[in-house]
Amino acid sequence: MMPTDVNPLVCHSPRVTVIGAGKVGSTLAQRIAEKNLADVVLLDVVQGMPQGLALDLLEAKGISLHDRRISGTTDYADTANSDVVVITAGIPRKPGMSRDDLMKTNAKIVVEAAKKAIAQSPQAILIVVTNPLDVMTYLAWQATDLPRDRIMGMAGVLDSARFQAFIAMELGVSVMDVQTMVLGSHGDLMVPVARYATVAGVPITELMDAQAIDRLVARTRNGGAEIVELMQTGSAYFAPAASTCLMVESILLNQSRLLPVAAYLQGEYGLEDIFIGVPCSLSCGGIGKVWELKLTDTELAALHTSAAAVRQNVNRAKEMLESN
Ligand SMILES: NC(=O)C1=CN([C@@H]2O[C@H](COP(=O)(O)OP(=O)(O)OC[C@H]3O[C@@H](n4cnc5c(N)ncnc54)[C@H](O)[C@@H]3O)[C@@H](O)[C@H]2O)C=CC1
Ligand SMILES: O=C([O-])CC(=O)C(=O)O
């Protein structure tokens, strides 16, 4: 018998839709369910694939010990009333390609996915993962007209995690004691801010020489490509899925984690009408606040150079979409 006096607050089970059930999407779905954060709907264009993955994840529930509902679909109607939508749909790069080479194919996919998903879940918070990240997030925002607190891109968390891992390996310390902040675009022009990287509160500038820092910064900038070259068949997905999950968690648990995300800027850092990686606090409403860190002239110039490249690519992407 159905209860007649259901308390919607108690009975609301958060729901996350992941669009694109490929490497990043399916790994993210697994993390969200196994961390017991939300029910998950996996959507893909390939009939049977998201349904099969959802069934596979569901059959592991008794072992991973959670009771989250997991479903797979090709129909956006099944994603209705999601609290968070994550777009991972699109092609990954192959060796020798830059993320920008994915723009033409992925622009159409992301625009369509964003429109259809938000039509079903107008109150959702949208996180874009598809590359080239900063450009795709801008296009998704244009396609949906979401307020800026409810749309963002995932990249800075991943780039910061890589920088964090490389610093820990270099110094032979626990990664848990390392804090990093990578700003700017998700590409060769990203801005790992060495001054704000610390080990147990000690700036890394006190712990290693400038040459070592430059080497780790360069490896961070090349982090995605390093994995693409090694794998030969696609790009990274464990760390990207973990990074996206951290953002989803901060939103669903209203944690206000201070994380670098691609956010829409309206004058912060002297930048306007652009999505680019900056520190933001993420809570149940999405982006609670864009934090303006004090940057040196060199760091700010690097952020502006990064933004100029994103802006150029946004204009190219808009032209591509218009000419189709
Ligand atoms: N922002 C970041 O830091 C990162 C971004 N990425 C990007 O994420 C994207 C996905 O990467 P992977 O999962 O490794 O690729 P993948 O090829 O494993 O999965 C992509 C999935 O998207 C699906 N898809 C294609 N068109 C679709 C549509 N119109 N609607 C729904 N689904 C559609 C495909 O069928 C496929 O299952 C790539 O663009 C990649 O570059 C990957 C890692 C990190
Ligand atoms: O490198 C790629 O194409 C995928 C990605 O964005 C990353 O791993 O950082």
From TrEMBL:
Active site residues of this protein: H186 (proton acceptor)
Organism: Aliterella atlantica CENA595
Keywords: NAD, Oxidoreductase, Tricarboxylic acid cycle
Protein name according to UniProt: Malate dehydrogenase
UniProt cross-references to NCBIfam families, sorted A to Z: MalateDH_bact, PRK06223.1
Residues binding NAD(+): G20, A21, G22, K23, V24, G25, D44, N106, V129, T130, N131
Pfam name, any one: Ldh_1_C
Function: Catalyzes the reversible oxidation of malate to oxaloacetate.
Enzyme class: oxidoreductase
Lactate/malate dehydrogenase C-terminal domain: residues covered: 158-319
Statement: the UniProt record of this protein carries the keyword NAD: yes
Any one GO molecular-function label of the UniProt entry: L-malate dehydrogenase (NAD+) activity
Highest taxon in the source lineage: Bacteria
Family: Belongs to the LDH/MDH superfamily. LDH family. Belongs to the LDH/MDH superfamily. MDH type 3 family.
Organism classification: Bacteria, Bacillati, Cyanobacteriota, Cyanophyceae, Chroococcidiopsidales
InterPro entries found in the cross-reference section: L-lactate/malate_DH, Lactate/malate_DH_C, Lactate/malate_DH_N, Lactate_DH/Glyco_Ohase_4_C, Malate_DH_type3, NAD(P)-bd_dom_sf
